[in-house]
Specification:
With about 575 residues, the chain is of the alpha+beta class. The chain folds into four domains: about 140 residues, Roll (ibrinogen binding protein from staphylococcus aureus fold); about 80 residues; about 110 residues; about 110 residues, no CATH class. A six-stranded antiparallel beta sheet has the order 6-7-8-9-10-11, with helices on one face. Strands 17-18-20-19-21-24 form a six-stranded antiparallel beta sheet, sandwiched between helices. A five-stranded antiparallel beta sheet has the order 4-3-2-1-5. A hairpin with a 3-residue loop joins strand 2 and strand 3. Helix 4 packs across helix 7, helix 6 crosses helix 7 and helix 9 packs antiparallel against helix 10. The longest helix is centred in the middle third of the chain and has 50 residues.
Length: about 575
């Protein structure tokens, strides 16, 4: 027997029997009192304020229908709107639940009524006035006014008594109805015969009767059906009794509410449960905790998804870097070629495309060395020495980048493992506060309450340092003259128009490295008119040596103590904004 909670089950806050009990409780506490105001200060939620007593909260959110009475609270000063002005000052005559549907009527003292329909995505509240043939006409509506105002509603048939409700399901009639339902399995047959049960309570009845929901109506025995009927009738008795066995309770899984119920449910017997003396308090608690849980889930899922994406990106970049590292591991071979050419200058002539020289240095046989025919033997040797130097530098740079990226990936894994274990808003808040710097470094997540991102292109370079690049001449002025600090490093393509670029001191770990400076200069080259050149001269200085002449056009500055760096125009591996 499957004793697990059915997936996709709502919190049961608008189950028919929950509304029945809520209507009964509200009638006892609110009948005879006046409505002072009706308003909305939250999307799809209506507040009906009762004089000197409470506020009825009506949620028509498609996935979260509910109705309960909350203690009287102060209305918000902003983002609130008055609704149903005709109800202000009206006395409540009676609050009743429909005989067979998820609808509640709040009758008022001029023969009108506020009908509250808890129909999922069609949930709504309607102010109605009497019409012909005992019908009601919609005079005002909370949602979708144009399509509802003027519509005619049939007479409201109120729930009468426990006896009348149970009589609908007398054993013989119940058995005949199940057999003639036309359904192939017992679960849809039970729901069809008693639609007020809903999915959860129908599952509960079958669980208690020890019958599988998928059991075929073609082979199920009368004995099994009578057991289902007995269990179901007992559930109905408990659910329609306004005192005694019905006691509100909320079931929890991983601290999140999964169901609000009037009676104990075997389907949740292994779940944590909290009992309440008041159904209004149970619904209020369940709705509030459900909203917080949904908010936690959404925020947590977002952080986890971004960390997972960052980890995958880091692993892809690591793989590519290791391949590059292998390609750069030729410095020794280039240096050997240069030395062999210098040792055998007499045997090499300008115009040759290759030379086959005996390796007298490492004693490893003859070496085939490719030559540039336009260069002399000495210049070819120098060319190989230059290639060896560049390969060695590239190898060292790649080694450092791999080291940094390994550290980055390790940090992301640790953050991801901790994020996946978060179980409350408090834990999430503590996590984002404690790891604010790491989350900003890895996925660019700003802690709530922190300053917004500056209005520039934003990058992270070696050592975790932040680099800002201007987007226009006016934006360049803003970056250089307002945002940049005196000790920040300032870059601009020399002799050409382009972005001002600032490497912000103190935003990374330790001292600014040569690699970070090269990356910042490359960004300046990339956002310049020389973007397509192979090597670009970039001026660098500290921001305190940058001046803007009086009356100069936007983006125009003068420099002192500049240093020129030649770089290839390119961006770092990932732009953070």
């Amino acid at each position: 027997m499957d004793n697990s909670c059915p997936k996709g089950i709502p919190l049961e806050l608008a189950n028919y029997y929950t509304l029945l009990h809520i209507a009964n409780a509200l009638n006892e506490s609110c009948a005879g009192k006046r409505i002072t105001q009706v308003y909305s200060q939250q999307r799809n939620q209506l507040c009906v304020e009762i004089e000197n007593d409470c506020t009825l909260v009506i949620s028509c959110e498609p996935a979260a229908n509910f109705l309960y009475a909350d203690r009287k609270f102060n209305r918000a000063k902003k983002n609130t709107v008055d609704l149903f002005p005709a109800l202000a000052g009206k006395r409540i005559e009676e609050i009743l639940c429909h005989a067979s549907d998820r609808s509640v009527s709040i009758a008022i003292d001029d023969s009108g009524a506020l009908f509250i329909d808890m129909f999922g995505s069609r949930a709504n509240a309607f102010l109605c006035t009497p019409a012909e043939n005992n019908n009601m006409r919609v005079a005002d509506a909370f949602l979708r006014k144009k399509e509802n105002v003027g519509a005619v509603r049939p007479p409201f048939h109120k729930f009468s008594s426990v006896q009348d409700h149970s009589a609908l399901y007398e054993e013989t009639r119940f058995l005949d109805a199940l057999r003639s339902s036309g359904e192939s399995a017992v679960f849809p047959a039970l729901k069809k015969i008693i639609p007020t049960l809903g999915t959860l309570l129908a599952k509960e009845a079958l669980l208690q009767a020890e019958v599988l929901p998928s059991a075929s109506m073609g082979i199920i025995t009368d004995r099994e059906l009578r057991k289902i009927i007995a269990v179901t009738r007992n559930l109905l008795r408990m659910l329609t009794t306004f005192s005694g066995e019905a006691q509100p309770r909320v079931y929890y899984e991983d601290r999140a509410p999964v169901c609000c119920s009037l009676i104990p449910l075997r389907i949740f017997e292994n779940y944590e449960v909290r009992l309440f003396d008041d159904l209004n308090e149970a619904i209020r608690t369940c709705a509030g905790e459900s909203n917080r849980s949904a908010s936690l889930s959404k925020e947590k899922t977002g952080i986890v998804a971004r960390l997972e994406s960052e980890l995958k990106k880091s692993e892809r970049t690591l793989k590519k870097m290791k391949e590059e590292y292998s390609a750069h591991d030729r410095a020794s071979e280039y240096e050997l070629f240069g030395k062999l050419l210098m040792l055998h200058l007499a045997g090499v002539q300008k115009g040759m495309k290759e030379a086959r020289l005996e390796d007298s240095i490492t004693q490893s046989g003859e070496k085939q060395i490719l030559l540039d025919p336009s260069l002399s033997p000495v210049r070819n040797a120098e060319r190989y020495f230059d290639k060896a130097k560049k390969a060695r530098a590239a190898k060292e740079e790649t080694e450092q980048r791999i080291k940094n990226l390994l550290h980055h990936a390790k940090l992301v894994r640790l953050l991801l493992a901790e994020a996946e274990e978060l179980q409350s808003k408090e834990m999430l808040k503590q996590f984002t506060h404690t790891h604010a710097a790491e989350l900003k470094e890895t996925i660019g997540l700003e802690e709530k309450g922190s300053s917004p991102l500056p209005p520039f292109r934003i990058f992270t370079v070696d050592g975790g340092f932040q680099v800002l690049a201007g987007k226009s001449s006016v934006n360049n002025d803003l970056l250089t003259m307002k945002y940049a600090k005196p000790n920040d490093l300032w870059f601009h393509c020399r002799g050409s128009g382009g972005s001002h670029v600032v490497l912000r001191a103190g935003t990374g770990h330790g001292e600014i490295s040569k690699t970070a400076i090269q990356q910042a200069a490359a960004i300046a080259a990339y956002y310049s008119k020389m973007k397509n050149a192979s090597m670009v001269p970039v001026a660098m200085t500290e921001k305190k040596f940058v001046r803007k002449p009086h009356g100069a056009p936007a983006g125009t500055v003068t420099l002192e103590r500049e240093k020129v760096i030649f770089v290839e125009p390119k961006l770092p591996a990932a732009e953070s904004h």
